[in-house]
Structure formats: structure tokens, C-alpha cells
Specification:
alpha+beta, Heat Shock Protein 90, 2 domains, five-stranded mixed β-sheet, elongated
């Protein structure tokens, strides 16, 4: 009979691991993460299984926190991309959810079972896959999106989740298993019910933050589109004005040539050429990308920034929406950084290259000396207000949609933003 109980515990231990992996973001490749987790957690499960066989259920239940929870916490913390309260919340959420399910099935078996742990085993065999399907189907995608977009508030939620984990572990296992303490069952059932309402409150709050994050992202995209349209309209106005002025230019040139003033006519033509450079096509052939450059380089000109541009792209067929997001957010951040510097220190270098293999974008601008950004990290915004702090996150998301990557860091008093996308990924994106 105890074999059914032990099998149900092994099954539960495996699925605690699987539930956490569904919510986990590793800083390594999927292959490397899978190998490390498989080896380390396999050894850990075998050791705990051996302890269960030798020492018995009652003993292992009391030390489970030290023999399984703490080692797995250390392992996943070393692998995690989020070494902060986000990780703690995800870890405690997975453990607490599975421990809650184990407690409920344990009580179900006590009240409704045959005393042979049959109901416990069968209910866990069914319940854990259902829970994992629901997490995969409804929770995983918005949860990962929330982790990407929301930086604040995780400390409170992780603290609540950790306390509930400890409370549930004590209520169910100490000093003995709850089925051996009938006098404590009512309090344990109340704790289990309270946890449902507690997690409903947590996820309601997180969902509201997710909706707010999506709203802010949409507002930023709309603002970028407005800026592009504004730049396009300004170019159109210049084109109309130039067409209107062409008659006057023709008359002037005819008069100069008729008077034999060839050098003056050439000088006048150069002036017309300079005016034409302000029209569409000044930076690249793609009208949308060009509109972004036209808008932000106007802002840089107002700041008196020293500008160096190297644009070797734009004639190709490109997914302009994502590229405009990358350029607009990168240049907006650069303008904000340069605005805080003295006029003589305002310098920016922008490069955009397209070759047979990759499209690369680099924005390099001077920044304050105190700023330090390690490669691979995204610095937090210092702006106040709900509508700030999304620029680099938006760049990363746009690069991800194109199958590329983003890297930002500080070097020699400059902030560097690099984005690289394979041409094959760009072509596949254009086919969608």
C-alpha cells in the first residue's frame, strides 16, 4: 500500500520541477539548461527517493525543505536570467502550487479513499498534468510578458508567496503529517482555501499591471507612428514648396546664364541642391526609416549635437515597423542622454548596414561618466512617470520579433546600443 504513496510522491517531485520550468527564464541556451537541470535534478530526485526508501515518509517529509527545496533553489538561481524577486516569486509560486495540490489530494485520500493511497495516486496522476496544461495554455505567455515589462512590485508578491509556502509546509507536515492530526485539519483546510483567494488577488494585480504595460507599449508605438507621419508630412510640405519655387529657380538660372554668369549659376544650383537634401531620401531610400532619421536628427540639430551617420541600408525590402521601433527608441534615448550633457560633449554616431548575411544597427552616444551598464543588462530608467522606462525593452522585443538580438553597454564614456538581425530572418519576416 505504501508503494502507491511513494509513487505519488515521486510523481509530485518530478512535476514540481516541470511547473517551475514553465515559469523559468534561463540565461543560458535551452540545450545547456536542459542538460544541467536533467543531471542535477535527476541526482537530487534519486537521493531524495533513496532517503524516502531508507528513512521513511515521516522523516523525509520533515527535512524535505533542506534536502530538495534549498538545493533546487540554488541550482535554478545559478541558471536564472532573473536574479532578483522575480526569480523568488516564480520559485515559490511553483513550489507552493504543487505543495497545495499535494495537500489537497492527501486530504481527499484521507476522507474519501480506501486507506490504500489509491485515490492519492490516481488524483495526482490526473491533477498535475491538468495544472501544467492550464499553466502552459493560459499563464505562461502573459507571465513571461509581465516579467519582461514590469520591474517593480515583485518583492511584495514574492514575500507573500514565500510565507505561504512556509505556512503550508508547517501546517501539512509539522510535527507530523496532517492526516495524523485530525484536530488541526480544520485550520489546514482554512489555510488551503485562503491561499486560493490570496493567489487570486496576486494574479489579479499582476494582470492589471500587464494590461497597463500593454497600454503603455501601444501608446509608445502610436507616438512613434505619429512622429514618423509628422516627419513625412514635413517632407511633403517641403516637396510642395520646392515644386512651387522651381519656377522662380528656373527664371533666376535663365537670367544668370543669359548674362553669361556661369559661376554664379553653378553657385545657385549648389544652393538648390542643399535644399533638395532636406527632402525625402536624405538618409536612405526607405521612406519610413528615413522619416525616423529626419525627425530625430532634427532634434539632435536643435541640441547642437555633433552627428556622424553611416547609413548603408534602406533600398532593400525591410520590415520597417520593427526597424522604425528600434531606431526611434534608440535615438530617443540618445537625445535624452545628450540633453543632460554640456553642449561641447554632445556627440552621437549612428551606423546602419545591410549585407548578404546581417543587418546591423549601432547607436553610440556620449553619456554621463557615472553611468555604467554591463554587457547583457538593461539599465533602469531614471525618468519619473508611468510612461517611461520602455525604450530598450521595446528595442529588445522588436529585435526578438525579427529573430535578432540587442546588446547595450557603456564604454569609454559612451553608451552603445547594438542590434543585429540575420538577413534570412528579415526575409522570412517579410513573407509573413
Amino acid at each position: 500500500m505504501e508503494i502507491r504513496r511513494d509513487l505519488s510522491i515521486y510523481w509530485s517531485m518530478f512535476h514540481i520541477l516541470f511547473v517551475f520550468i514553465l515559469l523559468f527564464r534561463s540565461r543560458f541556451t535551452r540545450k545547456k539548461t536542459t542538460i544541467v537541470i536533467g543531471i542535477c535534478m535527476g541526482v537530487l530526485i534519486l537521493l531524495n527517493g533513496g532517503g524516502l526508501a531508507v528513512l521513511g515518509f515521516e522523516v523525509m517529509a520533515k527535512v524535505f525543505l533542506l534536502t530538495c527545496t534549498v538545493p533546487s533553489f540554488i541550482l535554478f538561481f545559478a541558471l536564472s536570467a532573473d536574479r532578483n524577486f522575480k526569480f523568488l516569486f516564480s520559485f515559490c509560486l511553483a513550489d507552493t502550487s504543487c505543495l497545495w495540490l499535494m495537500a489537497v489530494t492527501n486530504l481527499m485520500d484521507y476522507f474519501l479513499g480506501d486507506g490504500q493511497y489509491t485515490l492519492m495516486l490516481v488524483s495526482r496522476l490526473i491533477a498535475f498534468p491538468i495544472m501544467e496544461y492550464l499553466i502552459w495554455r493560459y499563464l505562461r505567455k502573459p507571465y513571461l510578458e509581465l516579467q519582461n515589462g514590469v520591474e517593480k512590485g515583485w518583492g511584495i508578491f514574492s514575500g507573500m508567496t514565500m510565507l505561504y509556502y512556509l505556512l503550508l509546509a508547517v501546517a501539512v507536515q509539522y510535527p507530523t503529517n496532517i492526516v495524523n492530526r485530525p484536530e488541526d485539519m480544520f485550520q489546514c483546510i482554512l489555510i488551503l482555501a485562503l491561499m486560493l483567494f490570496n493567489y487570486a488577488t496576486i494574479f489579479t494585480s499582476l494582470y492589471r499591471q500587464l494590461l497597463l504595460y500593454r497600454k503603455q507599449q501601444n501608446e509608445r508605438i502610436l507616438q512613434e507612428q505619429r512622429n514618423m507621419l509628422k516627419a513625412r508630412l514635413e517632407n511633403q510640405q517641403r516637396i510642395r514648396r520646392m515644386k512651387h519655387d522651381m519656377k522662380g529657380h528656373t527664371v533666376t538660372l535663365s537670367g544668370l546664364l543669359a548674362a553669361g554668369k556661369t559661376e554664379e549659376a553653378m553657385g545657385y544650383l549648389k544652393g538648390v541642391e542643399t535644399d533638395m537634401d532636406a527632402l525625402d531620401g536624405q538618409f536612405c531610400e526607405n521612406p519610413y526609416i528615413n522619416a525616423v532619421f529626419a525627425y530625430y536628427f532634427g532634434k539632435l540639430e536643435e541640441l547642437g549635437a555633433e552627428r556622424t551617420i553611416d547609413i548603408q541600408a534602406g533600398g532593400e525590402e525591410l520590415p520597417y515597423m520593427e526597424l522604425c521601433q528600434i531606431l526611434a527608441n534608440g535615438l530617443e534615448n540618445a537625445c535624452d542622454a545628450l540633453e543632460t550633457l554640456d553642449a561641447g560633449k554632445r556627440k552621437i554616431y549612428v551606423q546602419m548596414k545591410y549585407n548578404k548575411k546581417h543587418l546591423t544597427i549601432r547607436i553610440r552616444n556620449c553619456c554621463r561618466d557615472a553611468l555604467y551598464v554591463e554587457k547583457g543588462s538593461i539599465p533602469a530608467t531614471e525618468k519619473k512617470g508611468y510612461d517611461h522606462g520602455f525604450g530598450l525593452t521595446t528595442v529588445q522585443e522588436a529585435a526578438d520579433r525579427l529573430g535578432g538580438d540587442m546588446l547595450c553597454y557603456t564604454e569609454d564614456g559612451e553608451f552603445v546600443l547594438d542590434v543585429i538581425v540575420s538577413c534570412q530572418a528579415l526575409q522570412e519576416r517579410m513573407k509573413m
